[in-house]
Amino acid sequence: MSAAPAADFASRDGAARVRVELGDRGYDIVIGGGALSDAAALRRSHPKLRRVLVVTDETVQRLHGMRLADALARAGLARETVVLPPGEATKSFAMLESLCEALLEKRIDRGDVIVAFGGGVIGDLAGFAAAVLLRGLDYVQIPTTLLAQVDSSVGGKTAIDTRQGKNLVGAFHQPRAVIADTALLDTLPRRDLLAGYAEVAKYGLIADEAFFAWLEGAWAAVVGGASAERTGAIAHSCRAKAAFVAEDEREAGRRALLNLGHTFGHALEAECGFGDELRHGEAVALGTVMAFDLSASLGLCSPAAADRVRRHFAAAGLPTSLRANTLAARAWPAERLVEHMRSDKKARAGTLTFILARGIGQAFVAHDVPADKVIPTLRAHGAA
Ligand code: NAD
Ligand code: GLY
């Protein structure tokens, strides 16, 4: 019997449209180089729209602000823009307050649409502002990082971080459209491309071994520049995310699998005070390696599967240990990391919840994982 041909996820026409099926709240994700010109589509979903309120960060505004302004002008839309500092620290109560006040100063009304133009930080913050301003406004996501194009712009999770942990204050509020212009990624630093790549690989590791196997060969083309592989990987990731969201919008069950690597990852981010030391995607990569190692140590998956995950992320240049490069400068006390995990949204009555795996593409939710099983995994990765 001949072996099945290897799956190929590359996009031959360089463009895709993915529907998030949520009834009358459903929306399209438009993907491709130049998709920004589809900003005119805003007119189709909002025929009476006169102006949009763009929320962005300084870096994106400097690099791509004119491109968006041109697209909106061509669509006959007036715009106001609020520009915020870049970085995770912007997802805070203080920035939420100043964003809401800035938008209210511009006399925002229910006929306006907020446009979140940036990475996951801007998308999460602007989406949350849209959820609460005037008790709920429409918003559109125009994601500009790989991470935001494959994950955070889709699915309606919006949030800010607090001292107690990541994304602990937020709302489910679906965008009206997502426009993922892959050409915007050309200016993204490699570090941020790789951080986003961790979320691409995540879809393969959760439930799609064929996609992961393809990525093992194609990852360099996905992060290397505009290519059929990159557009295909983004479109495939969006299809996977759209299916999870359509099935379980408010994370009552299967959507929780998308948090693979996040119980560990959020604890690592909290330990660094949400600074630039560790990007979210880097924390997810490290957390995913730890989750597979924990699964192997509990006898749930083979050590070979855990090793395959580590080798892949290491080959791509993502951190796979707390001993890596600049991370080694911090002590990472294991007990304190476990305390951060207890503040995680998934924790119930103080017990720890993880996404574990029985193999590549076989993730599941594990409640009540004892802390004494987690600490050796943290220490094996360099925690004190
Ligand atoms: P980010 O938004 O901080 O962007 C990373 C950096 O890239 C920033 O400095 C930004 O200014 C810069 N940048 C953005 N677009 C650029 C471009 N085209 N060219 C050059 N530089 C550009 O970070 P991120 O990795 O996009 O997102 C991380 C955030 O997303 C985290 O807060 C995480 O919690 C959140 N997230 C949310 C969800 C969700 O479902 N809502 C899912 C995953 C992650
Ligand atoms: N990124 C996790 C989710 O959207 O559910």
What general form does the structure show?
globular
Q: What topology, given as strand order, has the largest sheet? A: 1-2-9-6-5-3-4
Stretches where pLDDT is under 50 for at least 5 consecutive residues are none
What class do helices, strands and sheet pairing give?
alpha/beta
Order of helices and strands: EEHEHEHEHEHEEEHHHHHHHEEH
What ions, cofactors and ligands are bound?
nicotinamide-adenine-dinucleotide, glycine
Number of helices, counting only DSSP H or I runs of 4 residues or more = 13
Mean pLDDT: 94
| Secondary structure: number of strands | 11
Structure commentary:
The chain has 384 residues and is of the alpha/beta class. It is built from 13 helices and 11 strands. The strands form 3 sheets. Strands 1-2-9-6-5-3-4 form a 7-stranded mixed β-sheet, sandwiched between helices. It has a two-stranded antiparallel sheet with strand order 7-8. α3 crosses α4, α6 (190-207) packs parallel to α10 and α10 packs across α13. It is globular. The site of nicotinamide-adenine-dinucleotide (NAD) has 32 residues, from α2, α4, α5, α6 and α10. Residues 57, 59-60, 63, 86-88, 91, 118-122, 124, 144-145, 147-148, 151-152, 155, 157, 167, 184-185, 187-188, 192, 195, 279-281 line the site of nicotinamide-adenine-dinucleotide.
Task: Please write out the topology.
Layout: E1 15-20, E2 27-32, H1 41-45, E3 51-57, H2 58-74, E4 78-84, H3 93-105, E5 113-118, H4 120-132, E6 138-143, H5 146-152, E7 157-162, E8 165-172, E9 177-181, H6 190-207, H7 209-224, H8 228-247, H9 262-271, H10 280-297, H11 303-316, H12 334-342, E10 352-357, E11 363-369, H13 371-380
Parallel strand pairs: 2-9, 3-4, 3-5, 5-6, 6-9
Antiparallel strand pairs: 1-2, 7-8, 10-11
Helix pairs in contact: 3-4, 5-6, 5-8, 6-7, 6-10, 7-8, 9-10, 9-12, 10-11, 10-13, 12-13
This protein binds nicotinamide-adenine-dinucleotide (NAD) and glycine (GLY).
